[in-house]
Amino acid sequence: MSKHVLVISTSLRSRSNSHLLAQQFVRGAQEAGHQVELVSLQGKELHFCNGCMACLEAHRCVIEDDANAIVEKMGAADVICFATPVYYYEMAGQMKTLLDRANSLYDSDYAFRDIYLLTASAEEEDSASDGPVHGLNGWIACFERARLAGVVRGGGANAPGEMGQDKLDAAYQMGKNV
């Protein structure tokens, strides 16, 4: 059965390693017959959540920027895959900002069930991605019907284009198995 898959690449760096992982996930999911959309945060305007909670009444954020359109896509997707660089053992700030801005989905009839995470870190140890995994699990915990379905920890990649082929293959396979 074909699923609507949304892949969100959160790196702002050109040719980033996390974006390379995202592209491989996309390729795998497309080859598996899914409808896939790749959204990059590069060039997007995302403001911080101001904590007003008006989104729960309005069912969208009252801040007018690019986040609302992305959050709308998130709510409609069956599957969401986030790709993030690891900064100081945590997800990129722009990914956290997007998760915060997705608060309007909390009491909505969201479609997503499976959430995937792709990380790229300079450190080779898998533990370098524990922070992003923990942070994303905290967001997922607010959505009873959702689960973290898979993670690719792409360590040992610093300069653009340095992601190891084994990690690119793992992202492809994970996308193919959605």
Structure overview:
The protein is of the alpha/beta class and 178 residues long. The chain has one domain: Rossmann fold (3-Layer(aba) Sandwich). It is 34% helix and 21% strand. It contains 6 helices and 6 strands. Strands 1, 2, 3, 4, 5 and 6 form a 6-stranded mixed beta sheet that branches. The protein is globular.
How many strands, what sense, and barrel or not for the largest sheet?
6 strands, mixed
Helix percentage range = 25-40%
For this structure, the CATH topology is: Rossmann fold
Our measurement of the CA-to-CA distance between the termini, rounded to an integer number of angstroms, reads 10 Å
Tell me what portion of residues adopts beta-strand conformation: 15-25%
Low-confidence stretches: none
Report the CATH C-level class.
Answer: Alpha Beta
The CATH architecture comes to 3-Layer(aba) Sandwich
Q: For this structure, what is the CATH homologous superfamily?
A: Flavodoxin domain
Care to give the gist of this entry?
The chain is of the alpha/beta class.
SSE diagram, text form:
Blueprint: E1 4-9, H1 17-31, E2 35-40, H2 55-58, H3 67-76, E3 79-87, E4 90-91, H4 93-101, E5 114-120, H5 130-140, E6 147-154, H6 165-176
Structural key phrases:
6 helices, 178 residues, Rossmann fold, single chain
